[in-house]
């Protein structure tokens, strides 16, 4: 089988925020860097990020600092986070944002010219640096502009399907060009995975087509550990109508700017259920909530800005109990602020330009004049590759991971805005330490049998041909099954059924076939996507069955409370030698006294 060969010191897989930031740092350290991505450069999923980057710059409220950000992140994650990652993230995020500004990012401004910050769920103070509701676009544009001048070799529209090892260590990766189907070998002394999320394992999702859990699976296949896979975030507000746009995100920024949630009776139901952990920080009434969104430092946040897991469950409750909107959601209303602000329509269009256009163009709704219909959508996975907090290296030497495909910082639930800052903080660290790792090593020998095995596996669907079942149908049924049986509310009887179904889906995937040849063949791409989608689905399911409690994004109808003993452990999955998935608990190391004190002081 023919293939092209490329050689780099560090290979970064993924050109979202994490991958670009890692590539910039590795390249600045003086090593040669290759950057591979499935789409065109600049079109990674990060480009869709809307609300902002969380960093305790204290530009809008000078009471903010890294300690409050750390405490908010730990509370949001319900204390199963990797506390060292949460600490590094809170301390380093402000510098990463200022650096982005120095590289040309044009943030919205305060009246005295500093980076403007907005309110977001679970953050005590206004903390999200933003560019309207198009922050991801500005982040990607800035990193791309900066990185492109550093001599990074970019391999676009190329999918990595296998990591290559010599003994224990990583020595490269193997993939194919999506357009022509030609194979490519990348020799590298270190590989950084920055492949993003898994949303495409579910039917309703805000995630782009790229989010098929590739990095999770590449790492798992290479012997790395995955942690916290039961923690999937269902964002409370996705579009629900029309059906063709179901799942597309409605940014939390709408609620940050004063948007309220209403049921079909016109009741602001979020006031009905405020969790104990957040009672002291939540507004007593609508008046106080409104003052908070307008910057009153004495006011506390409205309940719409509670953490995403909680808001999503309240919405599901309203829908299930018959108080939903006509198309199976609830109402999100920003137009009501017209009763409070003189020029509200212009204000909404300025603060939420993408949301305004999204609803106008896709649903023919003017959000300055009418409420939106919204419902939960699969948005983010807190779980991912287990990495060392300082270096981002996985348990496999030479294999690093950063961004959404890595785990630790978020624990059971991610606060909005903490992903973009995570990409910058840990993308930089991954690039730095991958470069250091590469400088200290020689390239490894590539065994031709590994290539042969990878190509045979990749082409197997052609051997089975068009008479076999099409991979689309298997993917569709998998998404349906995950949505229905391992979704926002979980129960053992449904998950046992999911385990049976997954076994059948795996068998169907093994027998699925495609027609045609390797050029421009989306059926073949889908056949290849099935492998990672099935692995991440199994990892989510196995971990969700094991965590017999409700915590953060993981809600068990049959175990609705938190179990004290599970507050001290993470669940880890890995591949054993025969190739089956094993699961174990891993105790969380005790938090140092000074961090414990910060958590206590900020309760
Ligand atoms: C609509 C929306 C709005 C959001 N808003 C915010 C926000 O305001 N603030 C916030 O903090 N977070 C937000 N998030 C979450 C955040 O955008 C993501 O978590 C984050 O962008 C993930 O970045 P990443 O660099 O890890 O991966 P991605 O941006 O997903 O990039 C992954 C990259 O890996 C590549 N890739 C994947 N698999 C392979 C493979 N096998 N071979 C080669 N390349 C591969 C892809 O092509 C892509 O280039 C939002 C998410 C959505 C969907």
Please characterize this protein's 3D structure.
The protein is α+β, with helices and mostly antiparallel strands and 603 residues long. Helices cover 36% and strands 16% of the residues. It is built from 16 helices and 18 strands. The chain has helices at residues 17-28, 66-76, 83-102, 135-148, 214-221, 253-256, 286-293, 308-320, 344-351, 353-363, 418-439, 448-464, 471-485, 492-511, 522-546, 593-601; strands at residues 3-13, 33-36, 53-54, 117-118, 128-129, 153-155, 158-166, 169-177, 183-193, 226-227, 232-239, 260-262, 330-333, 372-381, 384-385, 399-401, 569-575, 581-587. Strands 1, 2, 6, 7, 8, 9 and 16 form a seven-stranded mixed sheet that branches. Strands 15-10-17-18 form a four-stranded antiparallel sheet, covered by helices on one side. It has a four-stranded antiparallel sheet with strand order 11-14-13-12, covered by helices on one side. A hairpin with a 5-residue loop joins strand 8 (169-177) and strand 9. Helix 3 packs across helix 11. The longest helix has 25 residues, at 522-546. The model has no long low-confidence stretch (mean pLDDT 96). The structure holds flavin-adenine dinucleotide.
